[in-house]
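Review form for a predicted model. The reviewer records the input and the model, then writes brief findings.
Reviewer: anonymous (R2)
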Amino acid sequence: MKRIRLNPYGKSKSGRALARYLGIKRLKLNNSKFKGRPNDVVINWGNARHNLDNVGRARQINKLENVQLASNKLHTLYKLADNNIPVPKFSTDKSELVPERLYMARTTLTGHSGRGIVIGYPEELPMAPLYTEYINKVAEYRAIVVGNKIVDFKKKLKKRDWEGERDEYIWNHSNGYIFARNFSGYVPTTISNVCINAVSVLGLDFGAVDIIEDETGNVYVLEINTAFGIEGTTLELVGNAIKELL
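Model under review:
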């Protein structure tokens, strides 16, 4: 009999919601008695830290090594660039940066939600393991890819009735932005293929691709998330797509 388990990265609200939607159990991060057999399936929900022995010989959806690759911003950029996926120009050497240009310094390679990002001109930036050239974006999107198909697509919009100060560079929830499924406007036709290829290049079965568009319509992949927020319609769309993989 096939057993299916979800391997979360921690106390993940989205991982818990997905497991409940699929009607499966989550693996304990410590002291789990589960031992995977060849006909079992383990869904890795963003767990890049634990090479759990209890996964055993089970089939993995989003293998550990591929989740580890996606969780490292620098390694991800190298892999995408080597496979002709458009990404911002980046460097690990501060001395290579052009003085007149804005850059995003990442003081951590595994941060999320804007954590560890410092924006400025080269002389203003701290020493960091990664620098990416800032792109003046006109739009930011998220495409959730499961099994080589885009199952959900959203655009980042300004949150209504936001009273805080918006950050013109980092568009995240804490700065007054949200992802919306229903929006108006033109979407570059190249986005679908770029997002699907980006997930495939990293060897992932599923992932949420964050991608931006500049003033001339060029698109650039920023990162691929393997444990992303899911609720409501997104939970249903992602859950049903993962059921097909099972």
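Findings: The radius of gyration is 19 Å.
Further findings: The longest strand covers residues 137-146.
Recommendation: see findings above.
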